[in-house]
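Retry 2 of 3 after timeout on previous attempt. Resubmitting structure tokens to design endpoint.
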């Protein structure tokens, strides 16, 4: 970027917010409309083969548009003050009917005054009034309807911004709830395992303590952002799995298959851990012999597909029903749906036993 770009941008912003400049631009817009109207009249003269009186045509056209320049802000304010919707719409409609009559008279008076100031004979005032009646009536309601549409747009936009803000707050609240749920639950299970190993296998207890300290340090460094790179999620879940492998020994075998080029894809924070914990606690830990857990991530088209699978025992049909999902799966599903607006998590049984959880995220 050019070093002077910031200065230019700031200067333009200040000029745009300057009241005198706004007034000048406002007058220029109405003048432009008047000149376009004058040009149309000149084209009519030319089409008839007459010599167009340019000065006179301009002085006749401009007053009409200058009258609207004076009246338009008052009409706009009246339309915003007395909207056509809501409980008082009939009362407000009567106010607009009266205001419309006032504007008809005011427009005729203003046009006459401005034309006289420009040296144009305005003729009979009554004829001027009748000649502009249709135009003023239509113009008034065009401005009223424009103000009504603008007000509806503003309300819709403000409601959308409030909904987005509430959605962000809800997402952060759910993430904090998930963290609050994860830490005590996981610490309780880990400390129980460490206490069991202290006498039976001090080496394992020491390893688990070291892994736990590393996991907690990693967790404390969390930025609190709702979206994080996939690589960070994988690193966090690897520390979690290191503790679980120490606890379960040969009963837990892990296959981590992360495709090239996906590590920087942003995913919801704490996406993997609840899925992996569900696979370990309700799949692998219930096997009598060794079990395997797969964590895969790869692109498919414009989506990142993350899969967590285990070869635990077959699951009951009710466990596959979303209503029967445990809190970790439900929380993850709700967070994904809230952020991306559609169902993003699928749970299905594996023919060999266990379950597979698939998550699809736009990448």
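Retry 2 succeeded. Sequence:
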């Amino acid at each position: 970027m050019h070093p002077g770009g910031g200065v230019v941008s700031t200067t333009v912003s200040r000029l745009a917010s300057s009241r005198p400049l706004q007034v000048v631009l406002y007058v220029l817009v109405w003048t432009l409309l008047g000149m376009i109207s004058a040009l149309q009249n000149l084209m009519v003269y030319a089409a008839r083969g007459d010599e167009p009186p340019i000065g006179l045509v301009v002085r006749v056209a401009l007053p009409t548009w200058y009258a609207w320049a004076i009246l338009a802000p008052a009409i706009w304010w009246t339309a915003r003050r007395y909207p056509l919707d809501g409980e008082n719409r009939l009362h407000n409609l009567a106010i607009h009917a009266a205001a419309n009559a006032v504007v008809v008279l005011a427009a005729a008076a203003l046009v006459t005054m401005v034309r006289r100031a420009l040296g144009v004979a305005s003729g009979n005032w009554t004829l001027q009034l009748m000649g502009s009646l249709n135009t003023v009536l239509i113009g008034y309601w065009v401005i009223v309807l424009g103000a009504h549409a603008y007000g509806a747009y503003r309300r819709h936009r403000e409601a959308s911004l409030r909904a987005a803000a509430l959605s962000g707050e809800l997402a952060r609240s759910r993430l904090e709830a998930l963290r609050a749920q994860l830490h005590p639950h996981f610490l309780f299970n880990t400390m129980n395992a460490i206490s069991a190993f202290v006498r039976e296998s001090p080496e394992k207890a020491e390893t688990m303590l070291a892994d736990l300290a590393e996991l907690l340090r990693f967790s404390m460094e969390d930025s609190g952002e709702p979206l994080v790179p996939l690589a960070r999620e994988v690193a966090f879940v690897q520390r979690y799995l290191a503790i679980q492998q120490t606890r379960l020994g040969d009963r837990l075998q892990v296959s981590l298959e992360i495709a090239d080029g996906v590590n920087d894809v942003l995913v919801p924070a704490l996406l993997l851990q609840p899925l992996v914990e569900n696979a370990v606690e309700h799949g692998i830990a219930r096997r009598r012999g060794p079990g395997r857990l797969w964590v895969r991530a790869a692109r498919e088209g414009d989506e990142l597909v993350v899969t967590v699978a285990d070869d635990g025992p077959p699951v009951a049909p009710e466990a596959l029903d979303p209503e029967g999902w445990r809190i970790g799966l439900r929380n993850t599903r709700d967070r994904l749906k809230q952020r991306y607006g559609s169902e993003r998590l699928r749970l299905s049984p594996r023919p060999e036993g266990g379950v597979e959880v698939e998550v699809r995220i736009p990448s």
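Attempt log closed. The chain has two domains: 5-161, 201-362.
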